[in-house]
Amino acid sequence: MASWLLLVHQIPSKPGYLRVKVGRRLQQIGAVAVKGGVYALPATDQSLEDFQWIRREIVEGGGDASVFRAGCVEGLSDADLQGLFNAARDTDYAALVEEARGLRTSVEEDQASGSLAELARLRERFRRVAEMDWFGAQGRGSALAELTSLEAALRPPPAGESVARTPRGRTWVTRPGVKVDRMASAWLIRRLIDPDASFRFVADPSEARSGELRFDMYEGEYTHEGDRCTFEVLLERFDLDEPSLRALGEIIHDLDLKDGKFGRPEAPGVGALLAGIALTHTDDLARIDAASAALDALRKHFGATLV
Predict the structure, then answer these.
(1) How many domains does the chain have?
(2) Using CA atoms, how far apart are residues 302 and 299, in angstroms rounded to an integer?
(3) Same domain, yes or no, for 281 and 177?
(4) Which of 16, 271, 306, 307 has the smallest number of Cβ neighbours within 10 A?
(5) Model confidence over 69-81: pLDDT tens digits?
(6) Taken in order 17, 19, 25, 30, is the CA torsion positive or negative?
(7) 106 lies in the same domain as 195
(8) Domain stops at, among 37, 70, 103
(9) How far apart are CA 179 and CA 136, in angstroms?
(10) Alpha helices in the chain (DSSP H)
(11) Structural domain of 132
């Protein structure tokens, strides 16, 4: 039986903007309505934090709200609830597909280079939807395929063309709260790309300073491309073709994109280990250091077992 978090709230009719604001926030975190004034999320630490922030906004706006943990929701089975989440994510994926297809058609008809900024924006949008795709909505594959087709139509130059091929002693910038792809990418950067790298964490890509390199974030120099995670992009850009690194890339891909593309049997265990590191450490540099020790060991393991 699954475990759920429920936000039960009442919002006053005035000010009118509060209802709109709360509705937009609930949509952004992937919550679904199960009945009037009741919204659900899978019970995770992130979901609890998201609901608590929204509850605070409602109460400060003069409304009333409570957050509960529930093993079931009256009148709905776990399968019913999962279906609600999948339907919501399929709607998100369908809107993304429509926008990407429209942009691709425009590019192909005009024989133009297209908008790389738009491509980056759609990649980031896909990443956010995928993070809320807890139960594997069917629309994910179509969205990935359409983004890959759009990328082929745009044929963007490598994002790293404007920076040194082998950066040294640079500051690498990414989003705070690092998890699987950012942990692994930071490890790869420090071990094999820029041994003297330092890391900085910002919420907005525009906060990056001149000369800093952004990774795994919107419009970053090194970030998702098509159906490839940032770790895979770094491997390709810096010609890192070691079999053990390819194996790690496949694991990180499946954990980050959750599309089961490679189906490596080690992925669930590695995912549990990295999730445990994230739970143990709140500091991003501490997470990277702890993950690096684990990834060093995995690289050595694959180096000894892969021919």
Answers:
(1) 3
(2) 5
(3) yes
(4) 307
(5) 988 888 889 999 9
(6) negative
(7) no
(8) 70
(9) 20
(10) 16-28, 45-60, 78-110, 116-131, 139-154, 180-188, 230-237, 243-257, 267-280, 284-305
(11) 78-156
